[in-house]
């Protein structure tokens, strides 16, 4: 079914939608933590190099596959090569697994946004507030339901009226909020009871200045793997999203230019996420506070930072969580669209039926994720050493196992079976030459699959030397 194909009205709509997908929770709560943990500027330099090489390769490949086949991730691979249907199935399983826990976290963000809007930020900063909230049975489910309904409404409206139109409104707002919080974060200062004063600019230095003291080959390799893993979160590759969005791009669009814009947009926002968070956490919590990640950063550490700002904390907290809400919303929309488009293409469903089915499935699994912090609470240790419950297991399987497998398979298919010329010809369809053509060929055939294989071994706990 080709319903709503080629329906992005222009390249701006596509770029904003794709960038909106890329700018999500992974950028906001994972990027700053990794940058702080991995030597500040050292991580930034490696990340930017990888974004221009490794990330460029994966992003270009998936978008080109989508536009060439005019299919969703579930069906695109088999259209390229009939025997490669299983890779499409795995590529579709990834967003199906991610969506339920993503909307659960989206519900958490909505809860905190409401807390700060109503002026109750001080309560959110108290010890045990976050664990008390997710430990409840009803409220996290209610917040998840509200967030999911908002996402589903956008998907129901379609690619043009829903995804593209909402992206054109939300993304400019998101950028304004990101810039505003970033600038404010650099202006703050705090003096401890012992008289030590820390400033936002000092925190910025801790973020951007490379710390090479005592760096070893093993530590450098660890930073490399961390930066490469972050690219999955940052660019939304290996989730089927870029294939789905690529299938909606017209044949006369300048694909190379759009890909460059998406890369630039995402890298800038990822960097600004660190500018927003690291200086503020450094000022009020010191270097030790900079190593918090995931939910503990977003819902525990930052509320304490906002509370330390006095009256302004509620305002800044509300602006911050509004920004996070928009980022989570655009990413959740893209994840759901990858699933809905797959259902439409594989089972010949119309958009309304496909969206309704995925909404029901997503909510049912998301309820289990919510209950994983109370009624269904358990604790197991994953191969990467993380003590996990339902959400962590789903995140580990989708992000650490299936996504590298999808990308490795994609590189093998394009690099060795169909040959890189397949993607290069698609990018150059309009007559505009593809930049970094030689780099792309080397990356997709050799460098990317090798790095991805090492990342997979590391995620599985098999490779322990890095």
TrEMBL record:
GO terms for cellular component: membrane. The keyword Transmembrane helix applies. It holds the Pfam family SNF. The keyword Protein biosynthesis does not apply. It comes from Lachnospira eligens (strain ATCC 27750 / DSM 3376 / VPI C15-48 / C15-B4). Its main location: membrane. It is a multi-pass membrane protein. Keywords: Membrane, Plasmid, Transmembrane, Transmembrane helix, Transport. CDD domains: SLC6sbd_Tyt1-Like (cd10336). The chain crosses the membrane at residues 12-29, 41-65, 86-110, 141-159, 171-191, 231-250, 262-285, 311-335, 356-376, 396-418, 439-457. It is found in: Membrane. This is Neurotransmitter:Na+ symporter, NSS family.
């Amino acid at each position: 079914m080709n319903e709503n194909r080629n329906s992005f009205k222009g390249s701006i709509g596509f770029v904003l939608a794709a960038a909106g997908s890329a700018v999500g929770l992974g950028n906001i709560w994972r990027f700053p933590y990794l940058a702080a943990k991995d030597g500040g500027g050292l991580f930034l330099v490696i990340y930017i190099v990888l974004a221009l090489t490794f990330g460029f390769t994966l992003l270009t490949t998936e978008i080109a596959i989508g536009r060439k086949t005019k299919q969703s991730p579930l069906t695109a691979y088999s259209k390229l090569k009939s025997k490669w249907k299983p890779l499409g199935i795995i590529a579709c399983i990834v967003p199906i697994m991610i969506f339920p826990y993503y909307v659960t976290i989206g519900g958490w963000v909505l809860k905190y946004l409401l807390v700060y809007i109503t002026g109750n930020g001080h309560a959110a900063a108290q010890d045990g507030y976050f664990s008390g909230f997710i430990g409840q049975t009803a409220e996290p489910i209610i917040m998840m339901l509200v967030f999911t309904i908002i996402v589903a409404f956008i998907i129901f409206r379609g690619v043009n009226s829903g995804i593209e139109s909402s992206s054109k409104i939300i993304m400019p707002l998101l950028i304004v909020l990101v810039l505003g919080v970033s600038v404010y974060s650099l202006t703050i200062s705090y003096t401890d009871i012992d008289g030590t004063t820390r400033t936002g600019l000092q925190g910025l230095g801790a973020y951007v200045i490379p710390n090479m003291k005592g760096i070893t080959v093993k530590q450098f390799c660890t930073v490399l793997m961390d930066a490469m893993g972050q690219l999955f979160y940052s660019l939304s590759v290996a989730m089927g999203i870029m294939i789905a969005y690529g299938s909606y791009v017209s044949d006369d669009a300048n694909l190379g230019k759009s890909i460059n814009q998406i890369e630039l947009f995402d890298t800038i926002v990822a960097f600004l996420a660190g500018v927003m968070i690291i200086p503020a956490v450094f000022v009020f919590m010191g270097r030790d506070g900079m190593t918090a990640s995931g939910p503990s950063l977003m819902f525990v550490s930052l509320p304490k930072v906002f509370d330390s700002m006095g009256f302004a904390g509620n305002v800044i907290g509300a602006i911050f969580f509004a920004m996070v809400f928009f980022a989570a919303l655009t990413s959740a929309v893209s994840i759901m669209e990858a699933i809905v488009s797959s259902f439409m293409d594989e089972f010949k469903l119309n958009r309304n039926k496909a969206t309704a089915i995925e909404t029901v499935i997503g909510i049912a699994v998301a309820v289990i994720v919510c209950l994983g912090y109370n009624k269904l609470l358990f604790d197991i240790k994953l191969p990467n050493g993380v003590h996990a419950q339902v959400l962590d297991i789903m995140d580990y399987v989708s992000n650490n196992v299936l996504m590298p497998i999808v990308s490795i398979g994609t590189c093998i298919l394009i690099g060795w079976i169909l040959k890189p010329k397949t993607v290069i010809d698609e990018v150059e369809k309009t007559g505009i030459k593809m930049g970094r053509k030689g780099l792309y060929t080397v990356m997709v055939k050799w460098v990317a699959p090798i790095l991805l294989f090492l990342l997979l071994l590391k995620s599985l706990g098999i490779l322990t030397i890095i």
